[in-house]
Amino acid sequence: MSTYNIVSQLEAHTSPIRNILGTSGCPGLSIGAFHSGSIVHTQHFGCKDIESEPLETPDDDTVYYIASVSKIIAVCALGTLIQEGILGWDVPIREYLSEFRKRNDDLGQKTTLRDLAANITGLSPAVTFGMHMYGERVLPKTEFARLIAHMEPVSPFRSGFMYAAWNYVLIQAITERVTGEDFGTMVDRKILKPLGMKRSTFETPLSTNIMSAHGTLNNGSCHRISINKTNKFDSETGLSAVMGGKSTMREMLLIFSSLLAAYVHQRDNAVDTTPNSPFVQLRTIFSPHVAVPPSDIQAQAYCLGIYRSQLPAVLSRASMNYAFLKTSSLPIFGNSDTHIAGTEVFHHTGNHPGFYASMFLAPASQTGVICLTNATPLVDPTDFAAQMWLATLLSPRPHTVSTHMHMPDFENMAKQVARANIGAFERVARYLESKKSDIRPSLPLEKYEGVYTNTVGNLRYKVSMAEEIDGDGDAEGLLFAPLDTKLTRYELKPWDGDTFYWRADRDEEVVGKAMFPAPFVGVHLVRFAVRDGRVESLMWQHCPASKKPEVLRRRTVMAKLA
């Protein structure tokens, strides 16, 4: 099979990818592939910054934030420390983090690095307490371990898969505490530099050839958002292992082709190292550790920092597209294609405000596809575009149209996802408005003012009187904000007695505030507990997966803060 034939077949998807990109509202996109271990093609669409003059198209060396696609690289760096005997997969983390030694449940007594990397601790998937509006952080990273050590899990320990950023926050905390080295510096020294990478980093990128972060409004228009000025997702933030990677298309293809080659070598030779490769412990890292519902562990699983699926399978499982498509509409990759039945594909999708990324790896043919974009979109174009290329590369003879794999209608699916995304917020907004009652707050609004803290006392929120809410001239409301932040504030209006709400508005959350969008009713409600004419606490279900809201107790009245 000639490179020319592969390239021509990949470029046959140009028009559908452009259409999906248009539906998503993203300004730019880069996609690239390697096959039989060699880079075969890259393609770039749109622009790096919607506000630049003139508009510039990304290229192979343009830096993107790769969000949770970082996790597998982070785990591979962790693997080098385990290979050296500095850390252990199955050593309880209480041996590394003293904050967990006072906790007597399974989470405190038994949790290991393996549990963290496999996402089976039962910790909350929400990152609300890690960052709020504009990526603004609530706590310094030195407080994260103490915060997490007092968290209530949202599912039983080791009972199943629960994707949670907090697990990887702890991985960073452990490696930094044991080695005394910043996580990003360690990744650079252990993985990136040995591979010859010059633009990839888990710290602040130095290149001026970089994508700007954007958000897409419901009408499909795109606007630049302020996120990376307040949060570089570097070692200093404590979020580097979670979503801190930045890289280019050229270097992503080199990293993942090298990773896949090392994995195949170690698997086939039953070893944990590969000559002239920084990647180690890959049999452990790529081993299925927990089933991803609703599949069994053989059909679809989470390994350590990466998903594994056996075809045919829903490869969109890690993408926002999965959440917004009905089960009957989900694309089943390889369905009716008997020649690839049983083929394993490793994959991950990542997102944080302003960026989305997808990665798919097929070891049997040493094939990989990477796709990156620079917006919080209406639909994840990286997921669908990458699957289109992957389908072409896994066809038995890509140059022969009659042998192409069955291709789902990704363009139509993209429109479905976009409608469902907008509709999810509209339903929450309608619910909040329709259930709003005439029951007034039981106390004058100034009585709700004060500082509310978590049980540890390191997380503090201020409630104060609002002069005006939503610019509508209505002065009846409260401001709810982390005490030590400058940009984040939730504008609360009375909803039902002592329950207040902040508006569900996707445009405002994605573009106006550069947030992780939250189309969930509970996230938008703040309930105050009043007893004997005094506010004792507030309750906020910031994590949709949690069975009960977080309780923040009132500690100080505003007068005492002066």
UniProtKB/TrEMBL annotation:
Residue ranges of every copy of the Peptidase S12 Pab87-related C-terminal domain listed in the record: 435-541
SUPFAM superfamilies: beta-lactamase/transpeptidase-like
Pfam families with a match to the protein in the record: Beta-lactamase, DUF3471
Highest taxon above the source species: Eukaryota
N-terminal signal peptide: none
Gene3D superfamilies per UniProt: 2.40.128.600, DD-peptidase/beta-lactamase superfamily (3.40.710.10)
InterPro entries cross-referenced by the UniProt entry: AmpC-like (IPR050491), Beta-lactam-related (IPR001466), Beta-lactam/transpept-like (IPR012338), Peptidase_S12_Pab87-rel_C (IPR021860)
Residue ranges crossing the lipid bilayer per the database entry: none
Residues covered by the Beta-lactamase-related domain: 18-378
Family under the similarity heading: Belongs to the peptidase S12 family.
Protein name: Beta-lactamase/transpeptidase-like protein
Organism: Lophiostoma macrostomum CBS 122681
